[in-house]
Specification:
Blueprint lengths: L1 E2 L7 E2 L1 E2 L8 E2 L5 E5 L24 E3 L9 E3 L4 E12 L6 E8 L2 E10 L11 E11 L4 E9 L4 E2 L7 E6 L4
Antiparallel strand pairs: 1-3, 2-4, 5-6, 5-14, 7-12, 8-11, 8-13, 8-14, 9-10, 9-12
Length: 174
């Protein structure tokens, strides 16, 4: 039979046979999956997309490390983290260019979907998808964010959080 033993925060059940002084210190979950609350215009490649939708199916922020006001994730501890961004650009015009980025402390650490919109080839009806993923080592306090750049039309990032989202999680312990 398992029970919680001890008085420390973040305790998890441990085997009762270990004695009354035994406890297990759990590592808090650090993860987020956020979407947009409304369409997002061109952020410029150095500015974060401000993902404000943390409600609804599949949306969450665990560990309090993602800010909906700044669009930035702040690493609570040194470790290895995984990040992914998926966007659906809308209102793209023939010949428009799009790039998506993940940045750490304003330095590009991953570039994805550097494309030119061509109707019927890279997208349909002004829509074009972009995505980027990375696994990186972060120091405590590192700020990670997603950004996009487009040239040409007045294309925006679609607000449907099933199409446009940013997520990340700590994947190692130090």
């Amino acid at each position: 039979m398992s029970k919680i033993i001890g008085t420390k925060p973040n305790q998890v059940p441990t085997n009762a046979n270990l004695g009354t002084m035994a406890y297990v210190e759990a590592t808090p979950v650090v993860a987020f999956n956020v979407g947009l609350s409304s369409t997002f215009s061109n952020s410029g490649n150095g500015n974060p997309i401000t993902w404000g939708n943390t409600d609804g199916p599949g949306r969450f922020v665990y560990g309090g490390c993602y800010s909906t006001s700044t669009g930035k994730f702040t690493a609570p501890t040194k470790g290895v983290y995984q990040f992914h961004m998926n966007i659906l650009a809308q209102s793209m015009g023939n010949g428009d260019n799009m790039e998506v980025y993940i940045r750490m402390d304003s330095t590009i650490v991953a570039i994805g979907s550097r494309m030119t919109y061509e109707p019927g080839a890279t997208g349909e009806s002004g829509y074009m998808a972009g995505m980027v993923s990375t696994i990186i080592e972060c120091e405590k306090g590192a700020e990670v964010f997603a950004s996009w750049y487009r040239s040409g039309s007045s294309g925006v990032v679609h607000a449907n959080p099933a199409w446009s989202y940013f997520c990340g999680a700590k994947v190692s312990l130090y």
